[in-house]
Amino acid sequence: MNGALNESTSLYLQIAAMIEDQILRGLLLEEEQAPSTNELARLYRINPATAAKGLNLLTDEGILYKKRGIGMFVAQGSRAHYRKAQKRLLRKLCKRHCGRGAQIGD
Question: What CATH number is attached to the domain comprising 88?
C-alpha cells in the first residue's frame, strides 16, 4: 500500500479509503487477502486499534470479510459495488452542476 496519512481526516477513514482505492484500481483483487491490522499499524506507525477500525468499517459494508484465524479478504463483487457507487455519484453531480450551468448561462 502506498500513500501517506494526514491529519485532515480520521486515520481509520484514510485507511479504509486507501484499501477502497486499491480495490478500485485492481491492485487488491476479489478473494485476495487485505493487509492485516498489524501490517497497517507497522506501515503507518499507528495504533493497531485504529487500523482495525478502518478494516472493520469495510467489513461492515461487506467490502471485506473475515476468515477466522487467517485474516481479511476482499469480498466478491466489491469492485463492481464501488464502480456503481462512483457512477451514481458522478451522475448526481453532473445533474446538479449541469443544471446550474444552464441557469447561469441564461
Answer: 1.10.10.10
Domain assignment of residue 96, given as a range: 11-105
Residues 48 and 33: beta-carbon distance below 8 Å: no
The answer to the question of residue 17 being in a domain is yes
**pLDDT tens for each residue of 36-59:** 999 999 999 999 999 999 999 999
d(CA 49, CA 47): 5
Work out how many domains the chain is built from and give that number: 1
Per-residue pLDDT of 24-39, as tens digits, reads: 999 999 999 999 999 9
